[in-house]
Design a protein that fits this description.
This protein has one domain (3-122). The protein is built from two helices and six strands. The chain has helices at residues 41-51, 85-95, and strands spanning 3-7, 60-68, 74-79, 103-105, 108-110, 112-122.
Length: 123
């Protein structure tokens, strides 16, 4: 059974500090413009609807922190979900996504964290 994403609950970029762009690991925590996929949530939703082949038997909420580098590539995903095969499949799916628009700070592209939350329900 193919599942479809039907709701993007909250997609927020979290600011960890106000005074500095960089943390010890080079991640900008307060960019002027946050990372985005295409033109925003609608493009991300359309991409996931078109390419998601993950089956689920109940409504499932996925929660991740995506680290997106200066080139727009997802380089790390931190999961806030229970470890299961569906979570592993979703992480692999996200890692294969086309490039994102990276975050911007002072007219320069920067590495950032993008908190991603969405629900998937059975067809």
């Amino acid at each position: 059974m193919k599942s479809y994403i039907y709701l993007f609950c909250t997609i927020l970029c979290i600011t960890f500090c106000l005074d500095s762009c960089k943390t010890n690991d080079g991640i900008c925590t307060n960019p002027d413009k946050y990372a985005s996929f295409g033109n925003g949530i609608a493009d991300f939703s359309a991409y996931m609807l078109k390419t998601n082949g993950i089956d689920t038997f109940e409504i499932t909420t996925f929660r991740y922190d995506l680290t997106i580098d200066k080139k727009g590539k997802i380089i790390e995903i931190k999961s806030h979900n229970e470890k299961c095969i569906t979570d592993s499949l979703m992480i692999n799916h996200l890692l294969k996504m086309p490039k994102w628009n990276p975050a911007i700070k002072g007219n320069k592209k920067v590495k950032s964290i993008y908190p991603l939350r969405f629900n998937v329900r059975p067809q």
